[in-house]
Write the structure tokens for this entry.
Amino acid sequence: ATQTKDALQFNFVAKDLAKDNKVSWTSPDGSTTGKIYKYENGSIKVHPSPTFVGNALRLSGREALAFTKNFRYDVFTLEATVKMASFENYTNIIANINSGGFYLNLTAQGNPGIGLYAWDKNTNQRIGYKQCHADMKLNKNELYILTASFDKHKVKLYVNGVKQKECDFPWKLGWPADNTLLAVGGNPNVGSFDDCEWFRGDLYTARI
């Protein structure tokens, strides 16, 4: 499927949940539900008491948001408003990866970027994830709006509205396997929750 032009498919706004200390919200069309989860004692469960600081959801590196919808769109824009507390390995901000899909992330050095799973258009063979990261590095405890757009041919990456990187994508985007859900703040497909590429910091908004 191809998403309708300009249709808001995913919309998380922390301040809307903070008002009533909610742990769940619905999609823009009201058809599906997102929840805040916490990793604790070897298992994932709905977060009993998420921490809101001002208009942000504070994620300590053991919480993530999961949205009960599988995204299979070949033209899209990802956007997140964040303030990082630390950079440890790769940090996933928005991801639906499982042998396919996309992710908006940060490197261990704080470079924002996007990854897309590529298939060869001619042979229909898997190639793997292709990444496009900005040269600039984010600073800890500073507020940033990160935006990445994909139009089937190019990836464009913006920080606070200023384009930082543009990369060609001469392949076909591969969809994630097994109806992988969308996650915000972690990797939805890992062998161990201890290695989930968790987000550590304040999340204000996340949109697709």
